[in-house]
Structures are given as C-alpha cells and as structure tokens.
Fold this sequence. Notes:
By secondary structure, the chain is α+β, with helices and mostly antiparallel strands. It folds into three domains: about 1-35; about 50-105, no CATH class; about 155-335, Muramoyl-pentapeptide Carboxypeptidase, domain 2. It has helices at about 1-35, 50-55, 65-75, 80-90, 90-100, 120-130, 135-140, 195-210, 225-235, 240-245, 275-280, 295-300, 315-325, 325-335, and strands spanning about 155, 170, 180-185, 185-195, 215-220, 260-265, 290, 305-310. It is elongated and about 85 Å long.
Amino acid sequence: xxxxxxxxxxIIFLFILLxxxxxxxxxxxxxxxxxxxxxxxxTGTEKTAAEILExxxxxxxxxxxxxxxxxxxLDKGYSSEEINQIYEHMSENNLKEILKSPYxxxxxxxxxxxxxxxxxxxxxxxxxxxxxxxxxxxxKVNLNLDEPFYQTVNEISNPNEVxxxxxxxxxxxxxxxxxxxxxxxxxxxxxIKDDAVSDFEALLAAAKLENxxxxxxxxxxxxxxxxxxxxxxxxxxxxxxxxxxSARPGHSEHQxxxxxxxxxxxxxxDLSDSDYEWMLNNSYKYGFIVRYPKGHSETTGYQEEPWHLxxxxxxxxxxxxxxxxxxDEYYDLYLTEH
Length: 338
C-alpha cells in the first residue's frame, strides 16, 4: 500500500516537472519572439555607393552615371582629389577619353580649358622640348605647331560663318563660293561678304576723319585664282619661301569673302607705318583685325602682313585686340569645343 502511494506521488511530481519545463520553454520562446528589447540590435543601416564615395572625399555630381564612373576612375588609380578636379574642370569629351584609358597624371592640365586628353603625349613632349608653360604647349599643339605646316589638314565644315578659321591646318572645299558676295559701294569692282560691307564702309569713313586714306586692292579670290597665283610664285621662289607669304589653294582667307588687302594712298600693296599703327588700334572697332601682325609668324606661318584685314565681327575683333593674340589662338581658346 505504501509503495503504491509513493509511486503515485512520484508520477505526480514528474508530471509537474514536465508541465513546468514546457511552460519555461514556451515563456522563453515567447519572450524571444515578441519582446523587441531581447532582439539583437542593428549597428547602422547599409551605406549607399554614393555615401561611400563621399566618405572618401569625392564630391558628388548630379549625374546618373557618376557613381559608376567615379569607381572606374578609382580602379584606374586616380585619387579622390584628382577625381574632383576631373569633374570640376574637364569637358565631357575629355572625361570619355579618360574613362577609356589607363591612369595618366593630369595635374598640370586640370585648369587648362582647351586641353584635349587625346593629345596628352604631344603636349608633354612639346612642353619639354621648348620649356614653355603647359597652357602655351596645349594651345600650340592644338594649332599643330608641333608638326610641319600642312602636315595635318582638316576640311572646314562651316565655310560661310563669319568666324570661320582658315589657316594651314584648316582648308576650304575647292568648290566653295560664299553665298552672299556683294560689291563694296565705295569700290564697286571689289566684292566681299554682305556681313562685312557696312562695317568696312564705316572703317573707311572713320579713317578719313583722321586723315588716314586707304583702299582695297584684293578682296574675294576664288580657289582657282589662288591656285594660279600660288603656282606662279613657285616659278619664282622655293616652296618654303612661297609658303611664308602665300597661302596654298583652299587655305586662303580671301576665298571666304571676309578678307581684304588694303593699301595706303600712294602705295602699291602696303600700308604706311602710320596707317598700319592706326589700323592696329582702330580696325577692331569695326569688326576687323590685322590677321598676320608683326611678331607672330611662328603661330600664323606667314610673314607680317600689315595690309591683310580679316572681318570676324566687332565682338570677337575687340576680344582679339584686348588679348593681343592671333586669331588662330583666339579661335582655339574661345570658339572651339574641346
């Protein structure tokens, strides 16, 4: 009888323990699932790629492909500061070239507005050769002055524009004829583009008020006429000499209808010193520049020509005058997309 009571008590005891054990497990899991304080806490949200770049000192740019591009530049070895400089100063054309190429040290070129990445090796070589500023090296190489004249020639696509650049690297099509040639009222035997006529008449009138008298003796000149003229010179002088004073066919500004050769009263084909001085200091007010001034033969490829005027409009002529540079340099610095 005692054994049965003991056995019954033992079963009850084990049953109680079982209930308590299950209850404890239930309580534990309930607390784990529904008490937020018991859950592992997060140390922070995951950072975006842009935030990671910003932490490295890279200034974010509002551009859809910026993150991908910046990471590409980092992979190539560009520092955060170099990347900032690239996006602050470099053109989109340059950026595309940089992204396609191995790392290059661009420290000397970041702030040069007419820099072209594709010409980097030429810039470095020319700068080292002449020991000139990097800005000068860029402009001169852009004008192909690190090569012999006429070695690289591009056909002009905008021959009717007033600002068209014609030189030994830029040639007019052989069949180009300006579409708005008109006679100069004061000198009806000579034609120039309509854009330049009224300003040339104003230039003549202003000069006369100061007792400066000049007249045109060569204005529009066709491709064929320039070809004959150039070849006639070759019968007299070697090609390198002829190239210093005469343009090859297609490379003459006269073909644009925007250039005039003028002479002082009593002169065959030149300006007097005083008239030349007046022209240098006044022609820009009427949209004209002395295209081949003294001291710039290395840039233009021509001897000084005091008599050769080129119309580019008052705004641009004024800037060329104020800067004291050739039109070749001005065009590369301010009228070319790099």
